[in-house]
Structure formats: C-alpha cells, structure tokens
Structure of tetratricopeptide repeat family protein:
Amino acid sequence: MSKVKAKRRQQNNVKSKMTLILFATVVFLLIIGQQIAHSAAKQTLNKISYSEMEAINKGMGLIKISARVQVQNEQFNAAVKAYIEEEYALALRLFEPLAMQGHSASQYYLGVLHDMGIESAGNARVAYQWYRLAAIGGDDRAQHNLAVAYAKGEGVEANLVKAMKWWMLSSLQGNADSQYNLGILYAMGQGSVQRDIVKAIKWWRKAATSGDAVAQFNLGTIYANGDSGAKNYCEAERWWVQSAESGFSEAYAALTVLRKRSDYYSCE
C-alpha cells in the first residue's frame, strides 16, 4: 500500500534518532543519523545532586547549599545562552565546572559539545563518558544519546542490549525519540531483539501521541498494509492525517493514494 519514510530527528537537543523505511513487502532499512539542535525549552534548571538533597533533608547548611544551587542555576543559564547563541567555546567553559560538580544537565551538554567536535573537544569517547554520567543522573536526553552511542559503537563497543536498556529508561520518562527507536528495533528485529510488531506499535503509539510525525506516519502504514492483522484504512487515514497536520509531507502523498483507491470509503 505505502511505504514508511523516515523522519529527521526531533529538534530537542538530542544527538541522533534511528530512522526507518518500511516497505509493504516488509523490507526494513535502519539508518542512524545525527543532528544537534538549539532548543532550550526543556532544560532542567533546578536540578541538585543527591548529596545536596540529603543535606537539606537533615537541615545541614541549608543557606549555603541554597546559595550554591542558585549560583549553579545562574551559571547553567549563562552556559545555555552561550550554547544557543553558538558561542560553543564559552559554553564549554561554563558547563565544565558544573558538570564536575555532578550537574546532570551540564554533563549532558558537555557530551553534546564533544559530539559536535567543538574546537579541541571533539572526542566520541569523552562524549560517551559525559552522557553516561548524565544518564545515570536521570537525564532522559543523555539516556537517549548514550543508547545511540551503544547502538552505533561510538566511543564505546557496540552493544544493542545496553542500547535497548537506555532507550527503555529514556522512553519511560516520555522521550519520544527513544520511544520511536524502540519501535524501530521491534519492527525490524535485530540481534537479540526479536521482531514484534505489537511492541513496535505500542512504542510508536506513545511517540505518536506525543506528536511525533513519523511515528504517526508509521502507524498509518502498519494499518494500511495490514501488518498487525487485517487492513484498517480508517486507522491508517487517522494517523496519516495527524502526521500530515504535523507537517510530514509523505503523509499527504499517502493520503492521496489511499483516497484514490476503489475500495476507499470515508470514515468520518
């Protein structure tokens, strides 16, 4: 009926997103790309370390700790501003001391900057190390990027099992890119991951509900091709309409083809 065309990564400061082309003949092609965008909309501005929280709970040094957090936030905001304005060398200098103090969001950004190869910072192994620290600290974007590093073998030996682990953790925090990638792996089946179209639909639906246009498109294609059972043009049309409204051009083409079919009928 139609093929699923891969989308580019969402602009959410994440390193990369695995993409899929799914043909009606169930031929899969996995592509892992890279994109680092410049959005500060979802930054964690008030994150503090466990040791600081423990001290606050015990009532020890509350004023001093609060002042430290305020200074961290001010420096972090200045670093993010430099990053957005593409003053990467300055951003690197500002993020580094915060990262050394255990500030997860700064650790994430250092990983991004090393991935970007800013000045002397380009080092996949160092990027991996910062992503890992931030991921352990709970940053879902870092968890996603760490998974990509494991999937691609960048800065660390490739390990799909570990990639799945970190994508799962990131997905459970609502990261749509990670949810999409889990859908990709289950749709293809690779290595120790068995093909499971039901699980692929589950994760694509989560990503689609968050507004992921390609996940919406892929769901439409699954239903149009009958990959999950009987063909369901109503569900296919519903998801393709959402994808088209999200700006995914291939969805318009798919809708045009669908509505010209002799067996098409309006589901409205």
